[in-house]
Amino acid sequence: MSELKTITRREFLAGGSLLLAGTALKLNATPLLQSVPKEPIIDMHQHTSYLGRTAAQLLAHQRTMGITTTILLPAGHPVNYGSTHYGVSNGLQAQVTPNEASNQMAQQYPREFLFGANEVPDVANAIQEIEKYLKLGAPVIGELKFNIDCDAPEMQKIYELAEAYEVPVVMHWQYKMFNWGFDRFHKMLEKYPRVNFIGHAQTWWANIDKNHTDQNMLYPKTKVTPGGITDRLLQDYPNMFADMSAGSGLGAFTRDEEHARAFLQRHQDKLIYGSDCADIAGQGEACLGAQMIAAIRRLAPSKKIERKLLYENARTLFKIKV
């Protein structure tokens, strides 16, 4: 059932000011009708300007999915560095905009959006840039999606900052592309036990399988044998969590649904829903985020576990007051 969304005077004036300023958010097409979800859902992984999607389209997308709180993960600023493949992977390789846009969207829609903090790790002011947005209230750093070793000194400075501000770090794992050294990341978990790390993307989810030996295979579709690197990291380290988003996350749970049910049972306190989809539909087969919600509801061993995955785990980890 839908109802007309009440727009406060503050929101109206903020929207008007934003349009007059001619910002890149382009919210002139903001929908007024919003579906009211029966149960709250936190989406821990979305982006501004994702592959050119407008802010109005993003807003409509999240509302269509039934999301009540969305965390916007920004990109670093564009640079021609090796860590961005000399510019090729600027914008998280998806036209995602830096901190300012995420913060601005969250300021305009404070009941629906939160903003993360990010920067290219090896630029001179990386720590200062990330810290600026942590001081403004960012509940997370990331996603860290850069062509750099996961244990590089520059990365460890970010982990130290996360420890100081008590916020988690989102890591995009993609073999020979982003965050090199997945097989030795356990050393960072041990070195920074007070930092909560969130694993995400192809290499992270491919390695739920003990028999996954070809790391060049990013989207395996075979049956899963428990005990892969990812499975062990979640089991052995209290500070390791997982972001269920994107095609890699959806594929990990739909490739072997019998294994998925046991995996959800086993790691029910470590898994967090995210969408990370760039479509404008927000529903059906066109939308990975909507498909992931449906998969969670179908595969969760109990209603209690479903609510943990879609809401409670994120609320606790990101210290969200809803």
UniProtKB/TrEMBL annotation:
Q: Which InterPro entries match?
A: Amidohydro-rel (IPR006680), Metal_Hydrolase (IPR032466), TAT_signal (IPR006311)
Pfam families assigned: Amidohydro_2 (PF04909)
Q: Can you provide one Gene Ontology molecular function annotated for this UniProt record?
A: hydrolase activity
Q: Does the keyword Hydrolase apply?
A: yes
| Hydrolase as UniProt keyword | yes
Tell me the first and last residues of the signal peptide. none
Q: Which UniProt keywords apply?
A: Hydrolase
* Boundaries of every Amidohydrolase-related domain copy: 42-319
Q: Under which name does UniProt file this protein?
A: Amidohydrolase family protein
